[in-house]
Amino acid sequence: MSAKTNVYAVILAGGSGTRFWPASRRLRPKQLLPLAPGDPRSLLLATVQRLDGLVPLSRVFIATGTHLQAETQRALPELSPEQILAEPVAKNTAPCIAWATEVILDRDPNAVVVVLPSDQHAEDPAEFRRTLELAIQEAEGGRITVVGIVPTRPETGYGYVKAGTPRGHGASGHGASGHGAREVEAFVEKPNLELAESYVKSGKYYWNAGMFIFRARDMRAAILTHLPELGAACRDLKASGVDAFFARAPGISIDHGVMEKVTDISVVPGDFGWSDLGSWESVWELTAKDERGNVAPESAVLVDADRNLVVDLRTKKDGPVPVVALVGTADLCVVQTDDGLLVLPRARSQDVRDVTALLKTRGRGDLL
């Protein structure tokens, strides 16, 4: 499928990424950092460039917060200021996607919209694009469509999509997963381990990666039906302005507000080496390791050390260069920046957010 003139992308880039402290900060969050293994690009830039050949830059919109508008524009200088949709207040994904949908409908009433998170990683960009091509084809038929990631383990930290009957043209098999589009039977909240194991074993469940594809007019209709308060705010958007729209919009996710209520919705399985890069642990998992399972720069000194992650993100190169040395350690994360040093067990990577919470209570906004 060659690039179509009515396909647009909306990339959600308003997150804070607190689990990547000390690298991630309020004005330089996760999506603006080069966290993917072996890739010097920021996650946001990689997401935009992953769409090359499918959606041109002129039809890519970035949804972010006003406090990140300048940094986002600097990260993507090829985009016009009108393509940076800066939310005055964070109200979750439903108002954000509703606003972007209205902006795109103003430009093209026949638009198909691809909504993607800005902070995910795909090992196989070509397969990623093939998956989106099928999802776009499905959406063109009038069905809101999600990409479901073929699970590789019984993960308890993700929501799931339960797939049902194969859909006509998709049933013959597409992509590396060997599956085409299927009906969505249900969206499932994060399960316990026993349930997650049964989901993976059944072959009917996929991870919900937060990727949505739809005709803009179908999303507008779904919002009017299932989130009438938000739909009314959309109708008044031109007259009232963006600030009034967000002041009026309910704070709710697109999953809870729309996706879980729409009956004619499809899922397209994707198997392209996906990762949500949710913590320092995931960086260790994805990166090539030495013979003892360590991920570390050449400057690090490792003695009798196993399965550690060492990350050097210092930018000030003048003066002495501190060397990280690990002796007799296992399964640690050590991350150093110009003004912060994080040391914790890899298994507790999710707890980094507790550090930022404590720094906030101590009034250390300079470190956030």
CATH class of the largest domain: Alpha Beta
- Strand order of the main beta sheet, please? 6-9-7-8-10
**Structural class category:** alpha/beta
Q: What is the number of independent domains?
A: 2
Largest sheet: 5 strands, mixed, barrel
Helix segment count?
12
What gap, in angstroms, lies between the N and C termini?
44 Å
Element-by-element helix/strand order: EHEHEHEEHEEEHEHHHHHEEHEEEEEH
Our estimate of the beta-strand percent is 15-25%
CATH fold group of the largest domain: Spore Coat Polysaccharide Biosynthesis Protein SpsA, Chain A
Shape by Cα distribution = globular
Number of strands: 16
Uncertain stretches: 170-178
From the 3D coordinates, which CATH architecture of the largest domain would you assign? Alpha-Beta Complex
Mean pLDDT: 93
Q: Which value, in Å, is the CA radius of gyration? A: 21 Å
CATH superfamily descriptor of the largest domain: Spore Coat Polysaccharide Biosynthesis Protein SpsA, Chain A
What proportion of the residues is helical, as a percent range? 25-40%
Give an account of the 3D structure.
By secondary structure, the chain is α/β, with parallel strands linked by helices. The chain folds into 2 domains: 7-275, Alpha-Beta Complex (Spore Coat Polysaccharide Biosynthesis Protein SpsA, Chain A), CATH 3.90.550; 280-367, no CATH class. Helices cover 30% and strands 23% of the residues. The chain has 12 helices and 16 strands. A 5-stranded mixed barrel has the order 6-9-7-8-10. Strands 13-15-16 form a 3-stranded mixed beta sheet, with helices on one face. A hairpin with a 4-residue loop joins strand 15 (332-336) and strand 16. Helix 3 packs across helix 6 and helix 7 (228-235) packs antiparallel against helix 9 (242-248).
